[in-house]
Automatic annotation (TrEMBL):
<keyword id="KW-1133">Transmembrane helix</keyword>
<protein>
    <submittedName>
        <fullName>ABC transporter, permease/ATP-binding protein</fullName>
    </submittedName>
</protein>
<dbReference type="GO" id="GO:0016887">
    <property type="term" value="F:ATP hydrolysis activity"/>
</dbReference>
<dbReference type="InterPro" id="IPR011527">
    <property type="entry name" value="ABC1_TM_dom"/>
</dbReference>
<dbReference type="GO" id="GO:0005524">
    <property type="term" value="F:ATP binding"/>
</dbReference>
<dbReference type="InterPro" id="IPR027417">
    <property type="entry name" value="P-loop_NTPase"/>
</dbReference>
<dbReference type="InterPro" id="IPR003593">
    <property type="entry name" value="AAA+_ATPase"/>
</dbReference>
<dbReference type="GO" id="GO:0034040">
    <property type="term" value="F:ATPase-coupled lipid transmembrane transporter activity"/>
</dbReference>
<dbReference type="GO" id="GO:0140359">
    <property type="term" value="F:ABC-type transporter activity"/>
</dbReference>
<dbReference type="GO" id="GO:0005886">
    <property type="term" value="C:plasma membrane"/>
</dbReference>
<keyword id="KW-0547">Nucleotide-binding</keyword>
<feature type="transmembrane region" description="Helical">
    <location>
        <begin position="32"/>
        <end position="53"/>
    </location>
</feature>
<feature type="transmembrane region" description="Helical">
    <location>
        <begin position="178"/>
        <end position="203"/>
    </location>
</feature>
<dbReference type="Pfam" id="PF00005">
    <property type="entry name" value="ABC_tran"/>
</dbReference>
<dbReference type="InterPro" id="IPR003439">
    <property type="entry name" value="ABC_transporter-like_ATP-bd"/>
</dbReference>
<keyword id="KW-0067">ATP-binding</keyword>
<keyword id="KW-0813">Transport</keyword>
Length: 607
């Protein structure tokens, strides 16, 4: 990449600055003002200290030659320098403290923004690897890059002011030394910008592999995987892959570190040579009496510090360039377009509350983003209030996809879904979902206490212990809870202290109880609700379920035909289409796919 292109890229990336400074100000307006004030004071102190140092040397020389007045002036100047140095120390400590407080405030603000954005994302975003990489890149840098970008900007201001005061002192002694100071530092900036871009590319390109590294670590450290890891002897294989990937990362990091060292060493020698060249000339002028010893000391101090200040400016610009590259990741994540769940009419339409709303699917087709195959194709179904629909079919037939469309986790590619006569696209998504109660096959095992695990099914009633106990009874979880040490206050899971682990069936009963927290739900969805419980518990669950869903629409997905035969209608899905539709008796009489699957399962029980 040419230097011209690199600078063009840098210009576009520094457009991240306004957004970063807005975040900085929002995090702590008072802290921003304090940081600015301390930076200004810190910028002016070095020149003042250097000038007082020159006066001390000249006064010492004069005092050595017999000047009584110069001797007394030495004491006052030393006291003044002490005060300036003390002030410099206090300001530096104040800057450190302010930056640490700002780091906490800004990091917390950004983490909240990232989490808020995650709440706004739709299911399609979480199932897209590119979006997930953006999220991980944003999370990785949120606690360091924004503050680094801001502090580097303040550092540039500080060093620029300091350099301006130094330049004013240097010009009076040797104008050409200012040119040498600048010329010796520019190559360092070019190298820093080049290496910053290389570092950004390295860390961005390997985001997918970084996710894989985290996944390999997850396999070896989570309780949900340990049984298979030990049974199948997966440890050496997974650890070997982890080690190989880590070594690849290490080799890339080492190569970049060596490049930084080589450039830093070479440019450091260049800078050192420029300094000692100037040192030689100034020392010669002092020896010949052209300038005073104090002037020489001032010149050397100012030149060295000025060189450091100028290099500090260039280094800060290079660091800002790198920080801005990473900030582009953060803003790219925060700018991910959402709104697929937004209502399409204003105000949104809302069917009357109650259990009188029918559901109708009209020629609904859907395929997942980036996929060619149809997950659902021309599906038409209707459900009246009080009806029970069972969805059966092989894995991948489209059963869970249909549920996702009903909940507007996705929207149909073609066709429409109506709820109470209103197109789902025209309903407020939160209003729609509040009408559903559901338990999914991949239900979540919250590392909270029992009451919260159930109460999360209806957050407004999270503190309503009576409602929670009723849901537990209806979901068949009361027996599980009674046997626990602190019953409803028992912490569950193995992540935190005193956590109580449950069996898969016990967790599933809690998930069913969570679904029953919404006792005003108009539609109940049970996605493989009995996969992890025994036959007796299954029978009891569906007896309760039939009673609870007497006047509601209910949708059941199950591979157990003893369950689905209770439904009013059974939809047999095959390759995303409704292959058969009818009651159990009707489908058995038809002697088609359903009857074939039913007999296969019945034969398995008989054998």
């Amino acid at each position: 990449m040419s230097l011209k292109v690199r600078f063009q890229n840098a210009g576009s990336l520094f457009k991240q600055l306004p957004g970063t400074f807005r975040l900085f100000w929002q995090a702590s307006p008072r802290g921003a003002v304090v940081l600015g004030a301390l930076t200004l004071v810190a910028a002016l102190l070095p020149a003042a200290i250097a000038w007082v140092g020159k006066l001390i040397v000249d006064s010492v020389v004069a005092a050595a030659q017999g000047s009584v007045e110069a001797r007394s002036r030495v004491y006052g100047l030393v006291g003044l320098e002490f005060g300036l140095m003390l002030g410099s120390a206090v300001v530096d400590r104040g800057l450190t403290l302010t930056r640490e407080l700002l780091r906490a405030n800004l990091g917390n603000l950004l983490n909240e923004r990232i989490l808020q954005k995650a709440l706004a994302l739709e299911l399609r975003h979480f199932e897209d690897s590119a979006t997930y990489d953006k999220m991980q890149n944003a999370r990785r840098e949120a606690n360091s890059r924004p503050l680094s970008l801001v502090t580097q900007a303040f550092s540039i201001v500080r060093n620029t002011i300091t350099l301006g005061t130094f330049a004013a002192l240097l010009v009076a002694l040797s104008p050409w030394s200012v040119v040498v100071l600048v010329a010796a530092s520019v190559p360092a900036f070019i190298a820093e910008a080049r290496l910053a871009m290389a570092g950004f590319r390295l860390y961005s390109w390997r985001a997918p592999e970084g996710r894989k590294l985290n996944y390999l670590e997850w396999i070896l450290t989570r309780d949900s995987h340990v049984k298979e890891v030990k049974l199948f002897g997966l440890g050496p294989l997974v650890l070997g892959r982890y080690r190989t990937l880590f070594q690849k990362f290490f080799a890339e990091d080492r190569a970049l570190a060596f490049r930084r060292m080589a450039w830093g060493l070479g440019l450091g020698v260049l800078s050192l040579g420029a300094f000692y060249g100037c040192y030689l000339l100034v020392a010669g002028r002092a020896a010949s009496g052209t300038i005073t010893v104090g002037d020489m000391v001032l010149y050397l101090s100012v030149f060295r510090q000025g060189q450091a200040a100028f290099q500090g400016i260039l280094t800060s610009v290079g660091s800002m360039y790198e920080d801005a590259l990473f900030m582009s990741n953060l803003f790219a994540y925060l700018d991910i377009p959402t709104g697929g769940e937004a209502t399409r009419v204003l105000p949104p339409l809302s069917p009357p509350r109650g259990h009188d709303s029918a559901i109708e699917l009209r020629d609904v087709s859907f395929r997942y983003p980036g996929k060619d195959a149809w997950a659902l194709k021309n599906v038409s179904l209707s459900l009246k209030p009080g009806q029970k629909l069972a969805l059966v079919g092989e894995n991948g037939a489209g059963k869970s996809t249909l549920v996702k469309l009903l909940l507007r986790l996705y929207e149909p590619v073609d066709g429409d879904i109506f709820y109470g006569g209103v197109n789902l696209k025209d309903m407020d998504v939160e209003d729609l979902r509040s009408r559903f109660g559901a338990v999914f096959q991949d239900f979540v095992r919250y590392q909270f206490n029992v009451a919260e695990n159930i109460g999360l099914g209806h957050v407004p009633a999270l503190e309503d212990r009576g409602r929670i106990e009723k849901a537990a009874e209806e979901g068949g979880a009361s027996g599980v809870i009674t046997a626990l040490p602190q019953q409803y206050d028992t912490m569950l899971g193995g992540w935190f202290e005193k956590g109580q682990e449950l069996s898969a069936g016990q967790w599933q009963k809690l998930a069913v109880a969570r679904a029953f927290m919404r006792d005003d739900a108009e539609v109940l969805i049970l996605d493989e609700p009995t996969a992890s419980i025994d036959a007796e518990a299954e029978h009891a669950l569906f007896e309760r379920f039939q009673a609870l869903a007497a006047d509601r629409i209910a949708i059941v997905i199950s591979h157990r035909f003893s369950t689905v035969r209770m439904a009013d209608q059974i939809a047999v899905l095959h390759n995303g289409q409704v292959d058969e539709l009818g009651s159990h008796d009707e489908l058995m009489a038809k002697d088609g796919r359903y009857a074939h699957l039913f007999r296969l399962q019945a034969r398995g029980y008989q054998d």
